[in-house]
Amino acid sequence: MRIGFALPQFHHQAFETDRVADFARAVEQAGAASLWVGDRNLAAVRPRVGYGGQGDTIPSELNAAADPFVLLGVAAAATERVTLGSHVLIAPLYPVVQLARSLTTVDRISGGRLLPGFGVGWSPEEYEAAGRDFTRRGALLDELLDALEAIWTEDPVEHSGSLLSVPLHHSPLKPARKPAPPVHLGAMSERALRRVARRGHGWLPLCVVPSYVDADALRSQRTQLDEWARQDGREPGDIDTVLRVNVDAGTSLSTVADAIKSINDVTGIDHFMVDPQYEVDSVDEAIDYARRLLALLSVDSDG
C-alpha cells in the first residue's frame, strides 16, 4: 500500500508553516508515498451551508488555513520522490490562467511529481468571495478542465466558452510531466462520478475513521464508475483512486491502521491520504503520528 499524509495546513499547524519543509522531509524519509494539501479559502461565521454540505456549522479547525499552492511548492523543493497532491483544490474559485501557472510551477519544481485533485466545494460564501456563481460550479469545473488542458498542451493558446474565456496568448512554460499532470477529481454524487468516468485521470473519494467508513459503498461506487468509463470508451484501469482518510479526534492509531487494511482488502484501493488534523496539534506531533502509522502498516523508509 501507498500511504500519504496531509501537509501542515490547518488549525494550529497553520501557524507553523515555517516547519512545512521539516515535515515533508521527515515524512518522506519515514516511507510516505505522498504529501497533500486541501483547500479552504474562508470559513464563514454564519454559513448558509455547513461543512461538507451538511448542516449549518463549520469546524473551528478550518478557521485558519495556509495557502495550498505555497505549501506544495515548499514540499516540492524539500523532497525527492513523494507524489505531491491536492485532495482537493476548489478549482472553480481560481482564474484558470493563474491556476495553470501555479500548478505548472509546482510540477516543474518537483520534477513532474504533481497530482492535482479538483472538486467543486460546498461553501456558497467561498464562491461569493471569489465572484463566482455557486449554482454553476459543476459546469464551471467542466469548462475549467477544458481550458486547463489547452493551456498545458498548446502554445499559443486561447479558450472561448460560455463561462470562461482566455484570450490568445503565449504559453511556452509547460509542466514537467508530459503531456500534463494527471488531474484527479473528487466525487460522491452520480453527476460527479460520471465526470470522473468521462475525463478524470483519477477518483478522490473520502472516509472518516471511525465515524464514516463504508468499504462496500466505495467498492460499489468504483464498480459503477468503471462501467460508465467503459461506456465512454475508456479503460477503467487508467483511472486511479486515492482515498482521503480523515481521522476523528480521539481515534487510536490501531483503529486507523485497521480501517485502512480493511478497505484495502474489500476494495483493492492501495493509495491512502491520511489527515489527522483533529487529532494532532503541532508539526512535531504530526511527524510522530505519520512515523507510527507507517510502522503499524509495515511501510519502511524505502517506501
Q: Quick recap of the structure?
A:
This protein is 39% helix and 17% strand. It is of the alpha/beta class.
Structural overview:
The protein is an alpha/beta fold and 303 residues long. It has one domain: Luciferase-like domain (TIM Barrel, Alpha-Beta Barrel), CATH 3.20.20. The protein has nine helices and 14 strands. The strands form three sheets. The protein has a seven-stranded parallel beta sheet. Strands 4-6-9-10-12 form a five-stranded parallel beta sheet, with helices on one face. A two-stranded antiparallel sheet has the order 7-8. A hairpin with a 4-residue loop joins strand 7 (157-160) and strand 8 (165-169). It starts with a strand and ends in a 7-residue tail after the last helix. The model has no long low-confidence stretch (mean pLDDT 97).
CATH architecture: Alpha-Beta Barrel
Average predicted local confidence, pLDDT = 97
Total strands: the figure is: 14
- Name the CATH superfamily classification: Luciferase-like domain
In terms of structural class, how would the helical and strand content be classed?
alpha/beta
* Structural domain count: 1
User: Order of strands side by side in the largest beta sheet?
Assistant: 5-3-2-1-14-13-11
* Weakly predicted, low-confidence segments: none
**Biggest sheet details:** 7 strands, parallel
Rg from C-alpha positions?
A: 19 Å
